């Protein structure tokens, strides 16, 4: 019995409130042998779907987790799939008649059964350089899994600062509720956007960089030390965390505005 069926049965008096509570609690966690415990109730509880970190999982285990998750939920996001397994997960998804959304320069996949409606808020996503696009795309997939509409603009870093102004103008006109800024090297773009935008800005330092402060350390330090108010920072390459935070903000604002 899925969640909708539980509520329908409760409404019709077929089950008691205590029985419904028990069924809902059982529904919220799915155990797959000794491999994983899936939080199948997260989307209903927090608005964030189950997200699977694929980089250290065996292909067979990953398939089992995806299949079990989609037996209870409409969508699942799989991040950092091993490159050697990426095409195999695509084949597996098509074989099971799942729908797929891919991202540029990333092995993350949004796998779903029914089309995900864009009933949430709007999020703007900016990547400073082409090397940062993969992290930005991962954030986009998370936002879209949370029903958000995303406006993306890539390769608009401070090496050519004039490129950012038309983008921000578009974001203002489209009334985005949060902006994700993905940047490596010194990560200065996040501070600049935060100093201009009147919405929350989430900075994502990426591991693009070399020499002193390599692997995203300089970008992280720069964003954390920013004197621009309104900037929140997530961990290096954490597109998933940035997407979830931005979508939560945008969806809460959308909910408030429609009441």
TrEMBL record:
This is Nickel pincer cofactor biosynthesis protein LarB. It comes from Marine Group I thaumarchaeote. GO terms for molecular function: hydrolase activity. GO terms for biological process: 'de novo' IMP biosynthetic process. SUPFAM superfamilies: N5-CAIR mutase (phosphoribosylaminoimidazole carboxylase, PurE). Pfam families: AIRC. Residues 121-255 form the PurE domain.
